[in-house]
Design a protein that fits this description.
The chain is mainly alpha-helical. Helices cover 61% and strands 4% of the residues.
């Protein structure tokens, strides 16, 4: 386009004026400039007092008053500063589009009214950088999912009917007026559910979240886009929104032939969510619901599925927690049965084998406490020793420490029916010593303190107060290192340490 455009070419004159002002507009910036010029002309005309009352009013025949079709004359100045500001802003920001529409939608949701853009003194929105990085690439990635026919989930209701563009065009042409035609949309598109932490620190990400939500809605790839906010309970627990989202996913999956994997994953994660909620609420119903979900998920897996041992171990852990809460021998029996099956299907090379042996040993001890026999304790002592040995081979020092610690407890339980010192107590003291050594290697002073305290209680009977006092002193030092010196066990350690120290001092004075 020539820069010498005359009165018959107002667009060329506009380009010339913008270049004289130091701007080099492209097609997008020029379109914005024309839009702004029209808005400014409307505002100025509305502010005048008559047809020709505006300062830049044209002739009565509608022809602009300037020689080049623009007002004012180019010689009078470089042009409206607002116009140049928009052009420069467009060039600097890279031509971001859709900001005005997004702001209007945000304002509508927030319940406020946006100012009219053709009113005098109205604000002018200029593009800003997107809070969500690379939204354009996200939109391109979602294009293949537009209108995809999903084979899972229930049919969509009649309320989801959509406009049939082709039939609407034909009917409107025949009727000579706009006549919309709708059709039932039976597509089973995916649903997008965004889970967002609702803590105060997430306020900085609200704009990015809103842009992501809008991008997903406008992509046409999803049947619906829902934002779930994870709010804490008043007592500090985990919110319930994630359970609702997983329940909805499970319901959407349906029961078709091709939904097995989806149902499995939804059931498994729902069971994990229920178990996590129990750790916060201590409601037994959560563990009951978790076990029901685990049982359904287990039915979805084949007997040779490599994921089966992991699921059985998770289910056994939930049953073990339930048995500890209720003391019901039947629940403890179920926990032993499920964890025994998990161990039977776990290969020796599996790195999770020591942890599952530890869990199985705990279930046996729990079953004994709920009313089982001494056979449970003998088997628990044996399996916990194997768990500790396997953890040491796998360099899992904390699992090794816990296994030795709980093996010592099982040995003491075997020794309790007897009134005299037995080999069980000597083996328990040695097991506690190994637990303390492994806990030190793991850097866990809390487990080390527990092991040393229990070793001290055994040594009082088997080795005398001097040896026990050394164990109690080491335990007290670790209680302090763990920051738990005010707990009940720590105070018990301190009490025994002072009592034995006083007894040792009295013995020393008597000998002197």
């Amino acid at each position: 386009m020539s820069e010498d455009a005359g009165p018959s070419d107002p667009l060329g004159a506009l380009i010339r004026r913008l270049r004289q002002a130091g701007a080099d507009p492209g097609a997008t910036e020029l379109a914005d400039a024309l839009w702004l010029a029209g808005r400014m002309a409307d505002a100025e005309t509305g502010a005048g007092s008559g047809a020709g009352g505006g300062p830049d009013a044209g002739a009565q025949d509608g022809t602009p008053s300037g020689e080049d079709g623009l007002s004012p004359d180019p010689a009078d100045g470089p042009g409206p500063p607002q116009l140049l500001a928009v052009v420069r802003e467009r060039q600097e920001k890279g031509g971001q589009r859709g900001r005005r529409q997004r702001r209007a939608q945000e304002a509508e949701r927030a319940g406020r009214t946006e100012p009219a853009y053709d009113a005098p003194g109205a604000e002018i929105l200029v593009p800003t950088a997107s809070a969500f990085p690379d939204l354009l690439s996200l939109g391109h990635a979602l294009r293949p999912f537009r209108g995809r026919q999903w084979r899972t989930g229930p049919p969509r209701p009649r309320s989801d009917d959509v406009l049939d563009e082709s039939l609407t065009a034909q009917a409107s042409a025949v009727a000579n007026c706009a006549l919309p035609v709708f059709r039932a949309d039976r597509r089973r598109r995916a649903r997008m559910q965004l889970l967002v932490d609702d803590s105060p620190s997430m306020g900085a990400w609200e704009r990015a979240l809103e842009e992501l939500r809008l991008a997903c809605e406008q992509s046409g790839a999803f049947r619906s886009v829902t934002v779930h906010r994870l709010r804490p309970y008043p007592e500090g627990g985990v919110g319930v929104q994630i359970v609702g989202a997983l329940t909805d996913a499970l319901r959407t999956a349906g029961t078709g032939a091709n939904t097995g994997e989806l149902r499995l994953r939804a059931l498994w994660r729902l069971a994990q969510a229920r178990t996590a909620r129990w750790t916060r609420t201590a409601e037994p119903a959560e563990l009951d619901a978790a076990d029901a979900c685990f049982a359904q998920a287990q039915a979805q897996l084949g007997t040779d599925d490599p994921r089966r041992p992991e699921l059985l171990a998770a289910r056994g852990g939930a049953l073990l927690s339930r048995a500890g809460h209720s003391g019901d021998v039947d629940v403890a029996t179920d926990a032993v049965r499920v964890l025994r099956a998990a161990l039977a299907q776990t290969p020796e090379s599996d790195p999770w084998l020591p942890a599952r042996r530890l869990l199985f040993g705990r279930a046996l001890v729990r079953h004994h406490r709920a009313g089982g026999s001494l056979t449970d304790l003998h088997e628990a002592e044996w399996i916990l020793a194997r768990a500790a040995g396997g953890a040491r081979t796998g360099q899992d020092a904390r699992t090794e420490a816990l296994a030795w610690l709980e093996r010592g407890d099982a040995l003491l339980a075997l020794a309790r029916p007897r009134t005299t010192t037995t080999a069980y107590e000597d083996r328990a003291a040695e097991s506690y010593r190994r637990a303390a050594t492994a806990a030190e290697a793991a850097g866990d002073p809390l487990v080390r303190a527990r092991a040393l305290h229990r070793r001290g209680t055994v040594l009082e009977r088997t080795a005398g107060p001097a040896s026990a006092l050394d164990a109690y002193r080491a335990a007290w030092a670790n209680w302090q290192a763990a920051g738990d010196d005010q707990g009940l066990q720590a105070q018990a350690t301190l009490e025994r340490m002072r009592a034995l120290a006083a007894r040792t001092a009295d013995t020393a004075r008597g000998s002197a």
